[in-house]
Write a structure and sequence with these properties.
Chain lengths: 408, 110
């Protein structure tokens, strides 16, 4: 990533947010910023990057915004003047405040982009575009869709915000937890997308991971509630293991075979601090529980020393928040390492109808069958897992594993 | 902003008897009086007639625009600050607990 792209991305969220308070129109705010960035791209390489580049962009973008407001209301002279005056004199404190509010425009922008009246794909695209300053082309490449389709998705979302009257506000106290869940989900979805690396996509994927981390840290700064801290901790614990998950030739390595020396101790430390702070608030939630599970994996010196008993308890608690078959699967895996291999296997078999298109189910089942010396069954499960795998390096790993099983 | 709340539910699939439901709707209307500009319940979809004009001729269809399990059974026109407020009220419409309320902004034509 070059220096200018880095600056634009870093400043985008802040700038769009502050322009929004003048224009009340996301499209106009973004277009104005886009023009300002284009101007910077021609000026800065010649004149050098200004010391306070954010303020430079803000000033230029405001001028561009005034130009755009003039154009938009060309038909109606009166309205035009009113809007321009508003753009000149409107201050953030003039925008209506709700009973629960943090005086940061960016928070309003985050809640607007992640409004549950928009579908999840639209929330993700809008967040990456508006808050993270990624271009439509970059987002399209990261999500393996065409630039046109992604552009339409973003445009439709912005139009809906404007036309349907989606408020540009931090939700009221009564709605904050549901709305916050929606924001955290978007951040987690962005991270998750980076996690499954497709061939040739490694670079863009890394960008998504970085943006998700940046957003989660931003949320911690803006609204440090327990689940927000838990969300950031979870993402950082995952990301600390990024390097050890693939070899230099991009083959998948499962947790038990990873070189723990490659784990990023600084990130694990940061995540641990966030998690402790979250737990001290005594408002448990699914992100904190998952982060706690991740913490136990991240702090075990070896695979053999993993505290499976605690992990089992945490998954059991997670079921209170999310009673999905995937959580049950994880619980059973933990159980199988707590001396209840046979019982875990019996329950795992009952789970099949719910997870018969889920690759990790058959990978986990094959693993348990191997440990029970059920070699033929283990090979069969592995074959199902291979069929369901959508990821090249993961599939290669499963195929190699099958070869080992066949020999034994 | 003005919003139309369209109440969709399976006919005859109310979770309480008609009298109780009407009572619940009355209570809702009292509670939401400050945002409701108008609204009505509709007769059963079996009473619907659809009309369209093709090549200058009216064509009538005995029935609704679309045969679906959930049918439009009523509506409210509401004046709300924003979508969040409209959705908050829509969720309080009694039929929301077994049917679906579609909330649409009224188009403003200058």
């Amino acid at each position: 990533m070059d220096e200018l792209t880095r600056i634009f991305r870093a400043e985008s969220g802040k700038l769009v947010a502050s322009l929004m308070c003048f224009s009340q129109d996301m499209q106009l705010a973004e277009d104005a910023l886009q023009d300002a960035c284009e101007q910077a791209s021609t000026h800065w390489p010649v004149q050098g990057i200004p010391v306070n580049c954010g303020a430079w962009l803000h000033l230029v973008a405001k001028r561009k915004l005034i130009d755009k407001l003039r154009q938009v209301n060309g038909r109606n002279e009166q309205q035009k003047i009113a809007l321009i005056e508003q753009a000149m004199y409107c201050q953030p404190e003039q925008v209506s405040e709700l009973d629960y509010d943090v005086p940061d425009e960016r928070l309003r922008l985050i809640f607007t982009c992640c409004h549950p009246a928009l579908n999840e794909d639209a929330q993700v695209a809008l967040t990456l575009k508006t808050l993270c300053g990624l271009t439509v082309k970059e987002i399209a490449r990261a999500y393996l869709t065409s630039e046109v389709a992604m552009g339409q998705r973003v445009t439709r979302a912005k139009r809906k915000i404007k036309t349907a009257g989606i408020s540009y506000e931090v939700p009221s106290h009564a709605q904050i937890s549901a709305r916050l869940a929606s924001v955290l989900k978007v951040i987690y979805l962005i991270y998750n997308e980076s996690y499954s690396a497709y061939e040739g996509q490694a670079l863009t994927r890394q960008d998504l991971a970085q943006e998700a981390i940046r957003l989660s840290r931003l949320m911690v700064e803006l609204i440090p509630k327990a689940e927000v801290l838990g969300n950031a901790a979870l993402i950082l614990f995952h990301d600390a293991r990024r390097k050890s998950r693939t070899t230099s030739v991009a083959t998948y390595i499962p947790l038990e075979l990873q070189d723990r020396n490659l784990w990023d101790m600084v990130k694990i430390q940061e995540a641990s601090i966030l998690l402790n702070k979250a737990m001290s608030l005594r408002q448990p939630g699914p992100y904190q529980l998952q982060a706690a599970i991740s913490a136990l994996h991240s702090t075990a010196a070896t695979w053999e020393e993993t505290d499976w008993y605690q992990i089992q308890l945490l998954y059991l608690r997670l079921l209170d928040f999310n009673d999905s078959a995937v959580v049950v699967l994880n619980l059973l895996v933990a159980m199988s390492y707590c001396g209840e291999l046979e019982k875990a296997y019996q329950e795992l078999l009952l789970l099949e109808p719910k997870l018969n298109d889920y690759q990790p189910y058959y990978a986990a089942r094959s693993d348990i069958e191997s440990r029970m010396q059920l070699t033929a069954a283990a090979i069969l499960s592995l074959e199902k897992a291979i069929k369901l795998s959508k990821n090249g390096s993961e599939r290669d790993f499963l195929i190699r594993k099958r070869a080992v099983n066949l020999k034994s | 902003m003005q919003y139309l709340a369209l109440i969709y539910a399976g006919e005859g699939e109310d979770d309480v008897d008609m009298e109780t439901l009407i009572g619940q709707y009355r209570a809702f209307e009292e509670q939401a009086a400050k945002v409701i500009l108008g609204g009505n319940a509709l007769e059963a979809v079996s009473t619907a007639t659809s009309v369209r004009v093709r090549k200058g001729k009216s064509e009538l269809i005995d029935g609704p625009f679309a045969e679906t399990k959930e049918q439009l059974g009523g509506y409210y026109l509401m004046e709300c600050k924003d979508l969040d407020e409209a959705l908050l009220w829509a969720a309080k419409i009694p039929s929301a607990r077994y049917g679906t309320i579609e909330v649409r902004p009224i188009m403003m034509i200058e």
